[in-house]
Amino acid sequence: MYSKDGEDYFIVDAHVALWDGRPENQRNVHGKQFIDCFYDYHRNLSPEHAQWSYEEYLYQGGERLMKDLFEDGYVDHAIFQPAYLFEFYHRGFGQTDEASALAAAHPDRLTYNHYWDPRNGERGLAQLREDAERFGLKGVKLYTAEWYGDSRGWKLDDPWSYRYLEAAQELGIRNIHIHKGPTIRPLDRDAFDVADIDKAATDFTELNFVVEHCGLPRLEDFCWIATQEPNVHAGLAVAMPFIHTRPRYFAQIMGELLYWVGEDRIQFSSDYALWTPRWLVESFVDFRIPEDMTEYAAITTEQKKKILGLNAAKMYDIPVPAELRLPDADETETGPRGADDLVPA
User: Does 343 have pLDDT greater than 80?
Assistant: First the structure.
């Protein structure tokens, strides 16, 4: 929990990972390209005091994750969102065994989400059923730009993808986190396009689609889809660190999301270990929309509390102390909102 100026904030970091980008795990040059691209994001968007060396960035391990999130980072609960990337790494990039074991040891603090790839066909469907039972899955993280043999991506509305979404619905895996946004070397930008969210969200209304990175740089496309699909949510991974290097860009992102999507469908994420949560939480609580950006409403303390933790806690049934809970906003379910509460000119 984070406290400042008499206000308490329940923190859920909705997108964290344990990865292994060390040379001995890199299958080919693309493994090095991928972790190097991550490190460039980390180095260029973090304040100096929060920057790591390249060597410590390659692998953190569970002990360091627990310290960075729960001792230093104010986090009350965190959710693993693994990326597999077997074409680039011998044992995969996201360390699923280590992460799931850590979550099993700390169920009050960690939730483990798994992954699937619809290109695995029937074999993958059988594996999904085993994984759902083994991990007690409530959610998954999908990566549509992942390479698989000659394939360099897939779409959420592909026929085989629908088979997996149908299985998820049947198995009670309600929360579908999907990377839609920034490309990462060597993956292809268009494989992260947000367009396929629209059809899947319409056809699977019992599922929540959390669009990680809120579609950046396709924020406008994402907002126009999310505003008409009440089961589409915005994940702030990668968007958050712009609060430091490009605060006006971050204000634009938040202003657009609050206007189109609303305060009940936005989730905070540090994207650990890309960044650490401590400075992001502190910066977000202090953040104000610049006074000259009069097209956007001011961000309220209640909105920050929902974004920093209460929205994700509600989605994952994470217990929240009674004194920290808030009711949902009285907003339209679809369409733009909040236009009557603009920052005074």
Answer: no
Q: What is the DSSP string of 270-311?
A: --BTSS-HHHHHHHHHH----TT-TTSBPPPHHHHHIIIIIH
Quote the tokens at residue 341. Answer: 């509460």
**Residues sharing a CB contact under 8 Å with residue 281, sequence separation 6 or more, in sequence order:** 2, 9, 11, 73, 74, 268, 308
Q: ∠ CA(99), CA(116), CA(33), 5° rounding?
A: 70
5 φ/ψ sector (left φ>0, alpha ψ -120 to 50, else beta) = left
- For residue 269 the two structure tokens come to 């994420």
Q: Are 134 and 97 in contact (CB under 8 A)?
A: no
- 308: Cβ contacts below 8 Å, ≥ 6 apart: 2, 9, 10, 11, 12, 268, 281, 284, 285
Q: What is the Cα–Cα distance from 242 to 280, expressed in whole angstroms?
A: 10
pLDDT in tens, 328-339: 988 888 888 865
Alpha helices in the chain (DSSP H): 29-45, 54-58, 62-66, 96-105, 121-135, 159-171, 195-203, 219-226, 242-245, 247-260, 277-286, 301-305, 311-316
The phi and psi torsions of 275 (rounded to 5 degrees) equal: -140, 165
Model confidence pLDDT, tens digit, residues 106-143: 999 999 999 999 999 999 999 999 999 999 999 999 99
> Hey, CA dihedral for 25, 31, 33, 38, is it positive or negative?
negative
Please count the residues of the chain.
345
- Cis (ω within 30 of 0) for the bond into 159? no
**Lookup: tokens for 66:** 């627990």
Structure tokens at 14: 């909705």
Give the tens place of pLDDT for each residue, 162-209: 999 999 999 999 999 999 988 899 998 888 899 999 999 999 999 999
Burial of 122 (0-12, 13-18, 19+ CB in 10 A): exposed
The string of pLDDT tens digits covering residues 202-235 is 999 999 999 999 999 999 999 999 999 999 999 9
Q: Which residue has the tokens 């949560």?
A: 277
Closest CA to 269 of 79, 88, 134: 79
